[in-house]
Write a structure and sequence with these properties.
Blueprint (H helix, E strand, L loop, with lengths): L1 E2 H9 L3 H7 L4 E5 L5 E6 H19 L10 E8 L2 E6 L2 H11 L8 E6 L4 E5 L6 H9 L9
Parallel strand pairs: 1-2
Antiparallel strand pairs: 2-3, 4-5, 4-6, 6-7
Helix pairs in contact: 4-5
């Protein structure tokens, strides 16, 4: 049996389909906050039906930081599903943006990775100016936890 709480950090990041597809166990154990077995889930179908409730309970029990670390780790530039460049600094990414903006296909994507593991994607066509791109690099639209 698999402990469902061991899986929840990945599930909460949106990787549920990948996790459930790779599991070989047919049953899951869900424990309450004090460690008692709350219920078991048999099969992947039941896991899918109950997972939203489990995630919400898990998020309420976990101490989620009120503010996330927004410091930039690196930026990737993607074109048509292929990673073209990786930029380690904001300056390198900004220089690339200034060169690529007039020539690039509007659906190409910049993906900014933060030190807390979060990332945000934006299309190059979504930036009207280099100032907006700099704002994207320094202050992303990461949701604050309200729990």
């Amino acid at each position: 049996m698999t402990e469902i709480l061991d899986l929840l950090p990945d599930v909460a990041r949106g990787n549920l389909h990948r996790i459930l597809g790779s599991l070989t166990d047919k049953a899951f154990i869900v424990r309450s906050g004090d460690g008692d077995i709350k219920y078991t889930l048999s099969g992947r179908g039941d896991a899918l039906l109950h997972v939203l409730d489990v995630i919400s309970e898990y998020q309420l029990e976990e101490k989620i930081p009120a503010k996330r670390d927004v410091e930039l780790k690196y930026v990737e530039y993607w074109a048509g599903g292929t990673k073209i460049h990786t930029f380690k600094t904001e300056t390198d990414a900004l220089d690339h943006f200034k060169e690529a903006k007039p020539l690039a296909y509007g659906k190409n994507v910049y993906r900014a990775y933060r030190k807390d593991g979060m990332h945000e994607d934006r299309t190059i066509g979504g930036f009207k100016s280099s100032a907006k791109f700099e704002q994207f690099l320094s202050k992303p639209k990461l949701e604050e936890s309200s729990k």
